Amino acid sequence: MNWVTLHLRPFALATLLIVAASALLLSSEPSQKPGDDGEALPRVALVQIASLQALDDGAAGIIERLAERGFVDGRTLALTQFNAQGDLPTANDIARRVTDGSFDLIVTVSTISTQTVANANRQARIKHVFGLITDPFAAGLGISREDPLDHPSYMSGYGALVSTADGILMARRMNPGMKRLGLLWHTAESNSQVYAEAARLACADLGIELLEANADTSSAVAETSASLISRGVDALIVTGDVVVLSAINALIKTADKGKIPVFTVIPSSIDKGAIFDLGANYLAIGREIGNLAADVLEGKDLATVPVENRAPPSFMLNLQALQRFAPSWQAPEDLVEKADVLIDEQGVRRSRDATGD
User: Fold this and answer.
1) Residues 6+ apart with CB under 8 A from 62
2) Whole-model pTM?
3) Domain ranges in the chain?
4) What is 11-161+282-309's CATH number?
């Protein structure tokens, strides 16, 4: 998830974050303690750009899978986590820190974290595994779309591109009369550019007018979404845009006031009031990234790992939110039955695993 100019926090708060992050970087030296066999533990840095649900789930999946493969933090692994909390200068500071030779492996989640680390690691000092990138081939990482094995020899990983068209098609099924769709995004994020182009193509195919608006700061999201609503959209779509996702609560609250539903292609926002999320299972993606990281720690050569898209699907449906927009918006029974996570009309949340469905 990438942007050129990032203003997710007011200047004063950003300054505090930088100071806090600097203190964290000074205090979070990777463990030098030996393992049970007396050997030094492999040192791994896990880097993410912000505390968003998808990224948190991905990081959790990475740690879970590493542990399952025998790499347990504090016992057989020295793991240090870094989170820039949405601040680009802090992200660059973290990138410089984790590429200074203190770590044996860096794992990044999100496009911006991967880009900042890749820029700092151009001398190929550290092995680098990445994931949860919308389109690694378009992220300026030196990866060939035509040949997934044509990438820097010290770096590989997985993209996580999901189908924007599928989300729009599902919304049209829930409301066959949907004629105008609003897309709010930060135009400097390269991953959001990919989603926006996909939305344009899908809407053109379905005869839907796509109205777009730019939000370059999280504080602008509510006002900008209100401007889209005033233009007569029937729904708002949210993609993997970091700025917008950082203010998803404000966006949904504004949409509710305007009596407009919100759906996303990056779970999970149904607990916040979105009518559905159709995207990827980010915990599962994280586990795949963790599996690759474990392979590398066991000696796998990253030069032999093709860059692939790994986005196991996830569909989450909120019937309680949906009923606020009836009768125009309704969920066909087959969609209800296929939901991996469902919030029913009474607000009870259940998952397919929990119910045995």
Assistant:
1) 46, 107, 109, 131, 286, 287, 289, 290, 293
2) 0.81
3) 11-161+282-309, 164-280+313-355
4) 3.40.50.2300
| CA separation for the pair 186, 3 (Å, rounded) | 8
Q: Please tell me the distance from the alpha carbon of residue 235 to that of residue 209, in angstroms, as a whole number.
A: 11
Peptide bond into 268 cis (omega under 30): yes
Distance from C-alpha of 193 to C-alpha of 186, rounded to nearest angstrom: 8
The one-letter amino acid at 120: A
Amino acid at the residue 182? G
Rg (CA), the chain: 21
One-letter amino acid of 6: L
State the amino acid at position 216 in one-letter form.
D
Round to whole Å and give the CA distance between 333 and 319: 11
In one-letter notation, the amino acid at residue 283 is: L
Tell me if 11-161+282-309 shares its fold with 164-280+313-355.
Answer: yes
pLDDT digits (tens, 9 = 90+) for 138-192: 889 999 999 999 999 999 999 998 999 999 999 999 999 999 999 999 887 777 8
Q: What is the pLDDT of residues 117-143, one digit of tens each?
A: 999 999 888 999 999 998 999 889 999
Task: Give the C-alpha distances (Å, rounded to integers) separating 267 from 15, 113, 166.
Answer: 30, 20, 14
Q: Which CATH number fits domain 164-280+313-355: 3.40.50.2300, 2.60.200.20, 1.10.565.10, 3.40.50.300?
A: 3.40.50.2300
Cα-based angle 21, 24, 28 (whole degrees, multiple of 5): 145
